[in-house]
Write a structure and sequence with these properties.
By secondary structure, the protein is mainly alpha-helical. It has 5 helices and no strands.
Length: 136
């Protein structure tokens, strides 16, 4: 795994959580549309199966989200510890803005008052500093 891939794990985990959360919201919406049949006909058993199935899927999705969030926090702590171990404050800020906040290079350049090309050079130095932290 490259240094960039290591740092990008945080953003990847966040996207996975959003996707699972969206799926969970969709399952909840489906479950809310299932209405029980109160007539004496045999159709209520079939609706109960649909509702039960929807509830089971929601519970599974909620458990998956919970597990993903726990993994995200563990990944976030590890990456933040690695970034915080970089000695140069400017390099730390670049890494934080890029990999934790997920900002685009243009946003980072403006936020940190840096020339775009200089920012990219500093990013290269920051990656080397992270690799040195990982190797230790």
């Amino acid at each position: 795994m490259t240094t960039k891939e290591y740092l990008q794990q945080y953003g990847t985990a966040m996207r996975r959580i959003r996707a699972i959360s969206d799926h969970l919201a969709e399952l909840r919406a489906i479950a809310e549309r299932i209405t029980p049949n109160y007539s004496g006909s045999g159709g209520s058993h079939q609706t109960g199966d649909k509702l039960g199935s929807a509830v089971a899927q929601i519970i599974d999705a909620e458990n998956k989200v919970r597990t993903e969030i726990e993994q995200l926090f563990a990944t976030e702590r590890e990456i933040e510890q690695t970034i915080n171990a970089v000695e140069d404050e400017r390099l730390r800020m670049i890494l934080y803005h890029r990999y934790i906040l997920g900002e685009k290079w243009e946003q980072i350049a403006v936020s940190l008052h840096l020339d775009y090309r200089w920012l990219l050079r500093l990013h290269g130095r920051a990656l080397i500093a992270v690799q040195n932290q990982i190797d230790h």
